[in-house]
Amino acid sequence: MWDWTKAIAIAVVLSVLVRTYVFAPTIVDGESMMTTLETHERVIVNKLIYRFEAPKRGDIIVFHATPDKDFIKRIVGLPGDRLEVRRDVLYVNGRPVDEPYLAENKALWKKELEEAHLPPDLPFTEDFTVDRVPPGTVFVLGDNRRNSTDSRVLGPVPLSRIVGRAEFVFWPLDRFRWLHP
């Protein structure tokens, strides 16, 4: 009986340590990252990655948006970057950025405009400019830009508030996929 108790105790302690310091499951809540991530999908967050490497443009991160709420968004700007969205194109330091993950959302937006008999040239992402992303922060946007509370509202995200990088969707099983190549 003692051997079983020790084995179970060790398993519980290891499980708590791994979840606290290495990997953690997170539930996607909301539509701000659609169609990349759907509401109620579950992702694994790598909590150690940014101890060994700096965040990169394109990383999907989980961060503490408020003391009680974590958000999941995509990094589009790094410290020192100048950002601009003009006529639905993201520019980083004056260069246009290819955002293939927005294609499906942009197509859905055009269809909504057509069905509502609105002008087809209304932008999916409203124009904005950020002169410089401050040191020690990143600028994040949701992939569903029409329905996202992100750095346009919250401001740049301090690196100290980043929980980690979302690595893969593990639930539901039929939608398992890696989020980073």
UniProtKB/TrEMBL annotation:
Subcellular location, record wording: Cell membrane; Membrane
Cited Gene3D superfamilies: Umud Fragment, subunit A
Gene Ontology terms: biological process: signal peptide processing
Catalytic activity: Cleavage of hydrophobic, N-terminal signal or leader sequences from secreted and periplasmic proteins
Primary subcellular site in the record, as a coarse category: membrane
Record keywords, A-Z: Hydrolase, Protease
EC number, UniProt record: 3.4.21.89
GO cellular component: plasma membrane
PROSITE patterns, A to Z: SPASE_I_2, SPASE_I_3
GO molecular function, one term: signal peptidase activity
Recorded topology in the membrane: Single-pass type II membrane protein
Active site: S32, K73
Top-level enzyme category: hydrolase
Domain of life of the organism encoding this protein: Bacteria
Ranges where the Peptidase S26 domain occurs: 2-171
Family: Belongs to the peptidase S26 family.
PANTHER family for this protein: CHLOROPLAST PROCESSING PEPTIDASE (PTHR43390:SF1), SIGNAL PEPTIDASE I (PTHR43390)
Protein name: Signal peptidase I
Phylogenetic lineage: Bacteria, Bacillati, Bacillota, Bacilli, Bacillales
